[in-house]
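Hi R.,

Here are the chain sequences for the assembly we discussed:
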Amino acid sequence: MKQVVARDWPLRVDESATWVRDSDASFEMNEPDAYALEEALRLKEKHGGEVVVCSAGPGRLRQVIREALARGADRAIHVEDDVLATADASLVARALSSSLRKENFDLVLTGLQSDDQGFGQTGVVLAEQMGLPHATIVMEVDVDEVEQGRIRVKRELEAGWFQWMSMATPALLTIQSGINQLRYATLRGIMAAKKKEVRTESFNDVSEASYRIVGLHAPEKSKKTHFVEGTPAESAATLVRLLREEARALR
Amino acid sequence: MQLWGIELEREILEVDVLIVGGGPAGLSAAYRIAKINQERGGDPLAVAVVEKATDAGGHMLSGAVLDPSALYELIPECESLGAPLETPVSEDQIYFLTERLKIPFPFTPPPLRNHGNFVVSLNRFVKWLTDQVEAIGVDVFHGFSGSELLYEKDRVVGVRTGDRGVDRNGHHKSTFEPGVDIRAKVTILADGVRGNLTKTLLRKFSLDRGSIPQVYAIGIKELWELPEDRVGPGTVIHTLGYPLEFREFGGGFIYALPNGTISVGFVAGLDYRDPLFDPHVAFQKFKQHPLVAELLSGGQMIRYGAKALPEGGWHAIPKCYVDGALVIGDAAGFLNSMRLKGIHLAMRSGICAAETAYDAVKAEDVSGNRLSQYAHLVESGPIKRELHPVRNVHQSFASGLVPGLLYSGLSLVTGGWWFRDPMPGHFGHVRMQKLSSRVDQARSKRTSGVLVDRKLTFDKLTSVHYSGTRHVEDQPSHLHVLDTDICRTKCFEEYGNPCTRFCPANVYEMIDVSQGDSKRLQINASNCVHCKTCDIMDPYQIIDWVPPEGGGGPRYEGL
Amino acid sequence: MLLVVAEQRSGSLNPVTLETIAAAQTLQQPICVAVVGSHVGDVALELSSCDVSEVLTIDDVALEPYTSDGFVVALSQVVEQERPEMVLFPHTYQTRDFAPALASRLKSSLIADCVGVTSKDGKLLLSRPMFQGKFVAEVVPVGTAPHFVSFQIGAFRADSLKRVTNAVKTREISVSVDPSAIRQRPEDPFKEAKQAVDLTQAERIVAVGRGIKGEEHLPLAQDLAKALGGELAASRPICDSGWLPMDRQVGSSGQTVAPTLYLALGISGAIQHLVGMKGSRTIVAINKDADAPIFEVADYGIVGDLFEIVPALVAALGD
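And here is the predicted structure of the full complex:
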């Protein structure tokens, strides 16, 4: 689970032009991860078990952990490290796997991607690092009654195609957003969350990232607006020509 | 609650003291009770705070120049705990503005001198205060609105929080969560200016029978980032005059924070006569004045917000105690309109209420009689000492800027004396003139709009974007208009639909209907910044503001 | 050498592969295109008309149907054997499913969803959107080769692909894939009508605003969307009035999109709408009001009556 800057926050680039200014910002749970949490809670309601939330990053993500616990997760693991807030997927996955490895999870669920970096990889990389089979863009999870230790998942493929797939557990799934309605954290849930276990772990891997952000800027319009003139028929023809040849935006 | 004949099963939470509202008043009350618990030992009182914003301080907006005296009293060690008081006031300036000129006041009248005070962000202050309250062991529940008071006969026994997960047609969504009944021995209402629960309490018990009508002002504010410190941090500037007309109450303010950050805002009394007045437009015009425009040039607007303020003063404060409940803060109207400060008084009222509630719970007597100790503390303490001498200030401005200033000056010497005490007051909305009888029409130089350049001046929709306002889209509208036919017909003719102007968030629009030439009222509820102006100013008093689904509203970071 | 991993399903090439090859061609280095699957001969033939050095076929019955385990095992052997400088993919759902794992297995990571790539003084610079398209980041890969990159669909033009008349040679690479080690058991894909339209997947969008004046005029915009092969979307007031469902709303209270082409009809450009589409590659605005804020973000603009211009556009597109 990741904590990101709130969705419609007016963001600005920071001084180093490699990240955004977030010291004063509102943070919230990464929405795709909220869907993963919701799916986990539903699976628990149907099949029993325990839902553990794991997140890697600075101290401020306690807020997101508390919210996950308030919605119904049973306990949490916080891999604390400031660097992880802006780190790449492989480093974050290493941080998470270092803690997750210590326990035997049947299923690891993640969201599809984060609203900030949007690489959409942490889940898949985590599966690889932990040696788990994985499936991405999962819409439905069916715990196989017939064969113990297997699950069947419905995956979304492009252009309206879908596919069911089965795998043995333990496995990792990245959950598609919007598949369920997200539940509220109830008052009772919030109060109960205070008593739930949050285990803090540290992470001491100083290996290099595999990429570096060297610049961040708002997408500038490279040229001024090209106003197309003429009669409707003329301007339409001109526009189509421009789109076709200059902007190359048409098929 | 009945829903199609089905009684909803609600969870019940029991506490000793419930505080509705996580602003400076509510949090101070919570902190004080917890502190008394610590000091006196024994069985601690169970205290809970409910706050409708998602984040601490999310709905908090003010200039603000804070008088820290109440803070020092509440938390003497506040500075070592990192209280966000980084910017002491360094300089006070007052100007009278005409369209082009600025005329400085030769001196700063003593009540407006801010030596010893701090320029703060109320949002940050409340965030910090919330941390202190949580650290001392009180639960603050964010994202929960107080939707109704619970009664047993005529005694307040708690609050029901709002249902969540209701769609725009009133049906339950799959995520439906019924509101919780929080039962408390004492309920402290700190639900802010024109608080929705306080409103119902006042009505039920006619608590305002003995006071003059409460009047309000709207404060609109932006946070700007300038390329460098154009004015030193801690500079406090207040203006009078342009763009307000002679009998309109209000003025502008500019408070400088460090690192080129600056708060710019405008306050307009919600008792103006001209139905065409638009506070948002007035604010844009204020920014266009050379004094402000030069200051802001090259800068960037980063936040926007608006909120009403209670301006009625001492005589407009209603009776603040009933069986089982107390009213504190802006909800009661503890604001010093001369000094333009209310935060410290809100905090003080919270402290008084805390002490009263603690004693009452311990004595197992939460009757109005017992809780009247609160009124006694308010009247015999620093709150009355501060508010009483300025009790007629706002009302004196009803006669115009000059009479107001004269009276205010006089009151410094006479302690607020006047021939008629209290000076008569009227509800703000009744002062609005009809279009047909718009006096000063010829004399008024007011133009209907202002040129929006999106660098210095903005339209309302753009402003709303910078307030960070967000609501769950699929929910019933939280702005209840009793009879929208009035909007289309009577109001359109008599006042020209002032709601489309006084709302600083473009919530109300009169949309053309395809057939015929009448219009219909469209309510863009999700733009609402919870300022309460519509509830206050609508000339027919048919708009009832109730809290939207908990968690919705603005996000006033840094404001 | 740059290795482009082609995408195919059941012997049919996914044309986005051509975009990736076109992107690779801008870097002026030898290119190999790898086709992974079973019985991929036809696909390889199709690719052999591209101006590349070689087409590599990795043909194994265990690699059809696609599984991430199968592809990771096969491609890691290919990469280790061929030692490319970079491994390039189109950013498809399938790529997202296995490429990060492949990169991780080879001690690297995938720089995904790139919209631009340049080589400056031998250093590679990639640009990619971040924060839901609000910003563009310049990213440099760090560490030793190979570097893994995927390109956003539509970021490069398949028609800018350079081709050759003499077919490029094809080489088969044998890999050892143990079918029992493949942990995923996929079933056959099936089509299902999706409940909600996913505007974020659309390459071209025609959006309407208050300027459309009435629900009865929507077919006009629909025609244009159809002519462009795109989706219909709307600004908030249209959805609030119920003229289009909520899932077609673009803006801060709707979806954030960044298609190749965004055509705004009668949309004023309130900031709430702009934040939802500013990141689009080409923005065209048609509005009566020359001062409408939408023109501040538009690449092309026509100040005029959309009721006259849109039919003219549909006609011009038909030619």
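Chain C has a mean pLDDT of 90. Chain C touches chain A through 87 residues (CB under 8 Å).

Let me know if anything looks off.

Best,
T.
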